[in-house]
């Protein structure tokens, strides 16, 4: 059984920065791909960014490329999301996710955290 506990989030002005953290426990964190999803009101949950087990491969949605950075520290069982140049359209609930199957078919979710970007 794995648990993902998120921290960070809140309210920030447009153009500002914010960092989210996600700490994992209960499973071999370093063996699995991790990611961050977000869900805005009235919209489906979408994959924002992901990082391979080693950290050597990353994926970013076009909407966040050049602004968001995902990283992980396997020694601390933690994955991070650094968000810069935030825009009002980044406002959403952000979820940490562990891909414990393949292709995000067996996902463990963090509790979610609200990120609100004011204009």
Notable traits:
11 strands; globular; 119 residues; mainly beta; four-stranded antiparallel β-sheet; 0% helix
Order of helices and strands: EEEEEEEEEEE
Q: Based on Cα principal axes, name the global outline.
A: globular
What is the count of β-strands? 11
Q: How would you characterize the largest beta sheet?
A: 7 strands, mixed
Instruction: Measure the end-to-end span.
Output: 40 Å
Describe the structure in brief.
This protein has strands at 3-7, 10-13, 18-25, 33-39, 46-51, 58-60, 68-73, 78-83, 92-99, 107-109, 113-118.
Please specify the SSE layout and strand pairing.
Blueprint: E1 3-7, E2 10-13, E3 18-25, E4 33-39, E5 46-51, E6 58-60, E7 68-73, E8 78-83, E9 92-99, E10 107-109, E11 113-118
Parallel strand pairs: 2-11
Antiparallel strand pairs: 1-3, 3-8, 4-5, 4-9, 5-6, 7-8, 9-10, 9-11
Notes on the protein architecture:
With 119 residues, the chain is mainly β. Helices cover 0% and strands 52% of the residues. It has no helices and eleven strands. Strands 2, 4, 5, 6, 9, 10 and 11 form a seven-stranded mixed beta sheet that branches. The radius of gyration is 13 Å and the shape is globular. The chain starts with a strand and ends with a strand. The mean pLDDT is 95.
